[in-house]
Amino acid sequence: MSKNHKTFLLILIFAAQIGYGKSLKDSIDAAYGASLPSDIRFFTLPNGLRCYLAHNAKPERRAEIRLVINAGSLLEDDDQRGLAHVLEHLAFNGSKRFPKQAIVKYLEERGMDFGAHTNAYTSADETLYQMQIPTDSLSVFATALDIVADWSSALTLDSAAIEKERSIVIEEWRMGYLGLQGRINHAFTSTFYGNSRYHQRLPIGTKSSLDTFKHEALRRFYRDWYVPKNMALVVVGDIPVDSLERFIRERLSEIPARESVRIVAQERAAMRLLPTSADSLPIVSIIADKEMPSIICETHWRSAVQSITTQDQYKKSLLRGLTLALINNRFAELATASTKPPFRSASVTWSEQSRLLSSASLSLEPSEALFTSYEAALVELRRINRDGFLPSEIARAKAGTQKSMMMAYNERRNIPSSVRVGALVSHALTGSLVIDPEQQYKRDSTTLAQSSPDELRQMATTLFPIGSPQQLTFIAVSPQDSSGITPSSVRTLLHRADTAPIQPYREDSVQKRILSVMPPRGTILRERFYARSGVTEWRLSNGVRVLLKPTPFTNDQILIQSVAEGGLSLAPPQEYLAAKTAIALQAPSVAGVGALTATELGRVLTGKSVAVTPFADRLYHGMTAVCSPSDIETALKLFYAAHTAPRFDSVSSTTAKQRELQSFGNRANAPLTVIQDSINAILYDNHYAVRTPTRTEIQDWNHQQHGFPFFRQLFGNMRGGTVSIVGSFDIKSMKAQILRYIGGLPTKISPLRFRDIGAYPKQVTAAEKTIRKGAEAQAYTFIASTTFLPEWTLKFDITTDIVREIADTKLRETLRNDAGGVYASNVDVDVQTKPRPYVQTSISFPCEPQRVGELATSTAALWERLRADGIQERDVQEAKTKLLAARQTSMNDNNKWLERLQFWTRQGDSPERIFEYVPTLEAINREDVRRAFHLLFGTTNRARFVLLPEKL
Predict the structure, then answer these.
(1) b/e per residue, 792-813, with b = 16+ CB within 10 A?
(2) Which of 19-33, 41-55, 658-672 has the highest mean pLDDT?
(3) Strands (DSSP E) along 202-258, which ranges?
(4) Rounded to an integer, what distance in angstroms lies between the CA atom of residue 46 and that of residue 29?
């Protein structure tokens, strides 16, 4: 019996127990609503549509709407393969009240982007439509409900629209199901699901079914499954629930209460996975693919899905999460704890792959031969199954989990609507438990504290039954022929891992500290408060500037970022690869700091939420830290140590070099990599900062001699740099810590300054290059142009944002809506301010090879029309509305504030300039946009690159 069928029967049983005093609708309402938190309003309309409503203030003046259809590709008939997904596309292409693309147009005119705020998806099990809408206008919300009503029962599905969308979905199939990733996806589904309906009914369908389906077959799917009893509406946002309910009852009760002759639960019950004979277990799939940069391996132990509908099931899910964290901690230590680790990386996960199947998975990147690394991981899992975990391991994992739960509890008032709506969608589909954070924290803490070592060992054994091939699938993708890997050889390996002699796991205690000596405390030379932005500026005695921005957006987050001039521009050309790679290799989580290895540092940070990561681009470098307010001193210590005491780690250095060499070996076989190399060669003259290094350069790369010293040079002098701190903190209480750990950062007499290394894209005149690579019927077009500017201004920067919005929308309408030639297209405008201001415009789209010329001509004709005063005032206003809506939401986001502080720091300006964006945007007129468009989309300054298959 399928999960959905069981849920259906439970509802009927529940209804029978209530008695004759209530209607079936009231009984169903009680069954579905019984497990919901008290702030969720649940009701069912007379037509059978279930409704979930909740007020949520984050983000302000926004609401998330989801229309949930409990039907996906699994329910398609033989002549309907892929049509659940085609139908989802057509929902945006014509209905009773919204002809053609009027739905998308209406929402975009009100600031909502198609894709980001208006979208849909189809899976094997369900179809979901989503909108994010502004709530400062009730008329917009009312119109959004009209859209929901039309999706539910009033799609036009006319033949012309169906034919247009047929070609678009075929392009989606081409983009997602051809090429390397498509081949990997096919291997996974065929191996994991076997000859079952989940493999036979992929949401995309097949090329043959998409080419030949009849219009009536699509309309039949709509009639059969888009009925109110198969649907639920979920609305969460910054709008009163009473108003929500009133609008919904007024607008959606008109949806006809149709009965379907087909019942979802009954049809799903007959769709079990087909049994597999014992002699073919485990199921093994090996792909030898010359485009694969390195070998990867996944093993899945399959089991039936058990939805989390009770507190007992929820407790098991907590124990499962804790067990997985323990295993991953063990694997991480093994991958870094010796001079010759058994694998480069290994990790375990658990996920619901569908409504019927879940899997516990082991993903592995081998360091040597696949089976050698794979056996080491299996042996470690068996050691855990036999011995469990050390008390010290359990204590650390519990402390980390407790910290995560505490942070989630502290942010319970700041949960975004997009997260809350997801939990209600899951409840609508499967009856899964919706957790009330006010009540759940104490229960979770008790469960965590009471979980025993034996429970955790038993959970590991249940998830990863080493030695048994039942329900096991093994998938490997390799650049070389791996024909020696067979079900028999995998069974032999499982047996070997299950019988190998195993010693108990041991670990040493860590007595070291992040800092052995405290830094000298600096002083504040000058202080300034910027009233409008609420930013406090300190100039410290070591030459470092500090910007402090306390915010109310979160309760448990502080962001810290240092930035200074220099970056990779200071690296000698022959050492650029070493310098670039050094940044990632010197992250504390990779190399450790001071006397602490990465493993030891992880133990020292037990129970704390602290992460520090270095970064560098061509002009700037710095460190980013994220922490909980309660861990601020630990974060500042690590921040200081990452600048002053980087640690060389030979294991991570060797692993990085091996990865680079292995990836380089198959680089020439990957079509998209080949075209990118061609673009770099023509646009950048193969500049050393842009081009791919040669095999000899990778072999000669020496991190210890070049990369590590370069890193120390960069971060050993922070004079002239700025440290921005944003989040939930009090300036007075943090003052002493900032003066010690930031005021103590090392500086020299002169600050570092970036060099202009000349890594600019060229201005080329109508350059064209065609690259033939790959065997699949895929083509990609990439068009780029570069314009150097006399100076950078904020007005020009924002004007290019408007141009990009208009051009991106117009290109989508031309190539997708009108020509039906692409699934997705993209226009990007990149403005660089230093050292020499320029703007680069790029256009890209994949398509059928035979249509490259036609679509390129359409694109050129579009730009010509827009240049000839084709940009209308309504286009400008629509783009402005989108940008203003995005700006409005982002002003309540710590990450966006940090990003903007650092941007204006790089320009050498005041943080108050953050507030110039909106008035500058509003002052831009159509003529400004027209001039910028002519500059960005000229007729001669462009390079066009086309990737075609080797044989057409």
Answers:
(1) beeebbbbbbbbbbbbbbbbbb
(2) 41-55
(3) 231-237
(4) 11
| Matching residue, tokens 């990118």 | 676
- C-alpha distances out from residue 614 to 250, 359, 584, 585, 624, Å: 55, 35, 7, 9, 6
Pick the more confident residue, 485 or 639.
639
Cβ neighbours of residue 16 closer than 8 Å, sequence gap 6 or more: none
Closest CA to 938 of 798, 766, 781: 766
pLDDT at 15: 25
Over residues 771-790, the pLDDT tens digits come to 999 888 999 999 999 999 99
Residue 261 pLDDT exceeds 50: yes
| Contact assessment for residue 433 and residue 310, using Cβ atoms and an 8 Å cutoff | yes
DSSP per residue, 337-374: SSSS-SEEEEEEEEEE-SSSEEEEEEEEEESSSHHHHH
Of all residues in the chain, what percent are helix, strand and coil, respectively (each to 5)?
50, 20, 30
Res. 33: pLDDT tops 80: no
Count CA atoms within 13 Å of residue 609 on its CB side: 17
Return the pLDDT at 336: 85
> What's the CA gap between 797 and 794, in Å, rounded?
5
DSSP element (H, E) containing 6: helix 3-18
% the chain with pLDDT above 70 = 94
Q: Which amino acid appears at position 903 of this protein?
A: F
At 57-92, the pLDDT tens digits run 999 889 999 999 999 999 999 999 999 999 999 999
Q: Check residue 8 and give its pLDDT.
A: 23
CA 571 – CA 706 distance, rounded (Å): 9
DSSP string, 465-518: -TT--TTEEEEEEESS--TT--HHHHHHHHHHHHHS--PPP--------S-SSP
Q: Where are the beta strands (DSSP E) in 272-324?
A: 283-288, 296-304
Is residue 204 within 8 Å of 173, Cβ to Cβ?
yes
Contacts of residue 439, Cβ cutoff 8 Å, sequence gap at least 6: none
d(CA 543, CA 718) in angstroms, rounded, equals 8
How far apart are alpha carbons 900 and 522 in whole angstroms?
26
Beta partners for 839?
787, 831
